[in-house]
Amino acid sequence: MRFPLVLRLAAAAGLGATALNVGGLAAPAQGRVADHVTACLVPRTNVEAAAARGGATGLDHPGISAAEQLAIARRTHLRLATKAAGGRRALVARTVPVYVHVMRDDAGGGDVTDRQIYQQVAVLNKDYAGAGISFDLISTRRYNNTAWHQDDQSKRYRSLTRKGGARALNIWLVEAVWLGAATFPWDYAREGAVDGIRVHFDSLPGGSLLHFNKGKTAVHETGHWLGLFHTFQGGCTRLNDQVDDTPAQATPTAGCPVSRDSCRLPGDDPVHNYMDYSWDSCYSHFTRGQDARMDRMWAAYRA
Fold first, then answer.
1. Is there a catalytic annotation at residue 221?
2. Annotated catalytic residue: which of 48, 175, 191, 221?
């Protein structure tokens, strides 16, 4: 794996297949598969932190320029104005249906327990409670397909397995050299068939990825799904992530420093914000501005 991070996976033991798939959509597996995998994912620099969270490009979503940010803002304003003129509005409190897809390999490797999935949803509910967002687990389905497990044929497997409409959060659990990836709400009209988030299966609570096994990857990726940018979007610019109460930030955070200030603009880097690239243990909050942005994006694109 040619990425600037330490990612070592030991050989899995005690694996057995409970569902087979030959080049297509597998029936969901009903049995439980043991998955004894040890791992170490320890980024030591800002570059490695970006690679850990987002892969080779350092991002867990398509890159967005300042011009594109402003175009999205204009489109969002227009959609909200149109809905308001029609007497439509979204409730502040929202319950999001959740569909989890466990993409195991052909031998059943890469499985997680039902308990881990329940714990992951509990983490989402705890971390989004202040934003008035709750998550309701509707179903968990398991597939055995090595290509899908490795996040190959991504658009195919997502379009074949995705459930629900624009309000439904689909979570695909895969194994990759990055921790997560997400779609944005404003892309739903043209990318609805693959809308949702992908996270490393070992990033769920109780997983084996050191510093990234408390379920916060799903929290971070869901933030994108709800319309948030990284806190370091745009670097040291006043546009930044278009949220007034997240100080400008030049680069993603590595680890969990006591404090950090990468820009001359006012304020220290928001290293404890869920939309930075800090360790799971470092994350603690969204800001009021981010809450408000999620409200607007929900009303514009998912309500």
1. yes
2. 221
